[in-house]
Amino acid sequence: MYKPITLKDIAIALDLSPSTVSRALRDTYDISEKTKKLVNDYATLVNYQSNPMAAGLRSKKSKSIGIVVPDLANSFFSQAISGIESIAEKEGYHTIISQTKDSYHKEIEVINHMANRYVDGLIITMSSETTEYTHLQQMHKSGLPIVFFDRIVDEINTYKVVCNNFESCYKATTQLIENGKRNIAFLANAPQLSISKERIGGYKTAMTDQLISSRDELIKFCPSGGSDYEEVELAIKQLMALDESPDAIFVAGDRLSMACLRAVKNLGIKSDELSIIGFSNVDIIDLLQTPISHIRQRAFEMGQISMTMLLKIIETKYPITDFETKVIDADIFWMEHLSV
């Protein structure tokens, strides 16, 4: 019965370790040219054929990319995935897409599953429940290429792609103030997320620069990110019940903006009572009944850049140590009465 030649057979014949043989066949930087020639010549002599499944186990060259996002129904994430896939398909890679539903435990489960399927790399944005990153640090340390986009992790040194959150919120808050708004509330996602910190930072700095104190009572966190409607409605009720109730509200999340609009409508709050600006990539936002100015992230472009960065890690023969965080501008669209 025919038994195909294996890596182990080559290693025994040449008195090398299987890992050395594997790296030589993959042309990695840490194997000498002499050893590479020895291994490749012998592999040709014995008609060695790599097993695609085994090759995936050894080299993680499955031509598959894992994409992990909190919510596939979120317009921003679906547009970013389209950007990722536009580059992946062109380069011959398949995508495996999973959503965490903003659950920390689901995030761990999904990432472990993808790693066990030997994806070549991960593009990920964090769930709102995640406060520690051991699972990702272990994957990164083991050599799995990872690129973060949108919600990033500062503790892991790799490529990252983000919106210019601070500047966008600074500009939008400044414009609200220049249009006469003084009691500007801020509705944010989970407080530990990078996007929450950056967006609140832009809001607070704009208030300070315009000589208006940012009151803590005007900042509300909705850790569910808008998926729990009651949480959002309660936050709006609390804001409107303040002695100095807000004359404008800044909503720092895509799905959160939609939940806020629903709450405002259900609570009977008129558009002339409360100006609203929120992050939103919903294509039909101009058709919504309640007027809303909005910040639109360039999600498709962010996805394309994320995939391009991941390919740099996957396909390089040498380790990358100098990573960058790419900051992408966002576009602000104002309702007519608040326009510049």
Automatic annotation (TrEMBL):
Gene3D superfamilies given in the database record: 3.40.50.2300, lambda repressor-like DNA-binding domains
Keyword Transcription found: yes
UniProt keyword Transcription present: yes
InterPro entries: HTH_LacI, Lambda_DNA-bd_dom_sf, Peripla_BP/Lac1_sug-bd_dom, Peripla_BP_I, RNA_pol_sigma_54
Signal peptide: none
GO MF term (any one): DNA binding
Pfam family, one: Peripla_BP_1
This protein's UniProt keywords: DNA-binding, Transcription, Transcription regulation
Residue intervals of the HTH lacI-type domain: 5-59
Coiled-coil residue windows: none
Protein name: LacI family DNA-binding transcriptional regulator
